[in-house]
Amino acid sequence: MRTRTGRVGTLALAAALALASPAIEARQSSPPAGSQPAPESSAEPAEPGSPIDYASRRKGLAARTLEDAKNYFTAPLRWNGRNWEYFGGALAAIAVAHHYDTQARNHFDSGLKSPLGPANSGSLTDALPGAALFLGTWGYATLIGSHTGESEAWNMLESGGLSFVSAYAVKYVVRRPRPDATTDPNHFFGGGDSFPSEHVTAAFAVGTVLAESGNPEFRWIRRTIGYGVGIGTAYLRMKHNAHWLSDTVAGAALGMATAHFVMNRSTEREREENPEISLVPVQGGVMLAYSAEFPN
Fold first, then answer.
1. Number of structural domains found in the chain
2. 256: containing domain
């Protein structure tokens, strides 16, 4: 968890408390004339470091999800030059992959009598690696009671959901036939649903969250597993004659971009919603304490 607070606001609050503490002390030591001394209270003094009860700034799960969805689908309106460079790079990678669509398809279908190759298969089994990655992360985090792990699992679920909806929308605009329906990789807007691959999109969305989250000490292991699941899913979709090479590259780009969007949103939300400020009694007044917890 990472937290922050405004330096100006903290200094102003500390100054106000410092100015107010002598007046409070004088008022307590010099009761008004004619007033009876107040009976001693039997209540125990407040323990040092007691936190201030502020109204919670954390939004509900549904509100956060809807806010993320709104910002996700309107993100291109706020892209800067670097974002457009990434987008252009993704288009270039898809174009290069499209150039090798036929060669990749022939690699898997060579030796078959039918020019269209085998029928599209593996829709359920090819989704299992990504699903297992999410369920494993969520299950282990729940078992050990890790809030960080549960947040990571939620980022996986949100990334997979947002990217899946985007892929579904794009494929019904492009309408590209699958390789088991045509031998022409340039046949777009032909009534199909091949581009991009939803399986690969979701697998890379989930895998990227695993790869780029957690302890940096184990980054290479996480990246091997996370990106390995995405690459393996792409291989299975082409092997089962369900997608062209460029379909899988487009799905990978969409899934990775969505995962980074969700992780950035999660980091920003943690910084904004989790300040920890305490008042610590000291001799002659009180002291404002600010604490922050940073990941290892």
1. 1
2. 64-273
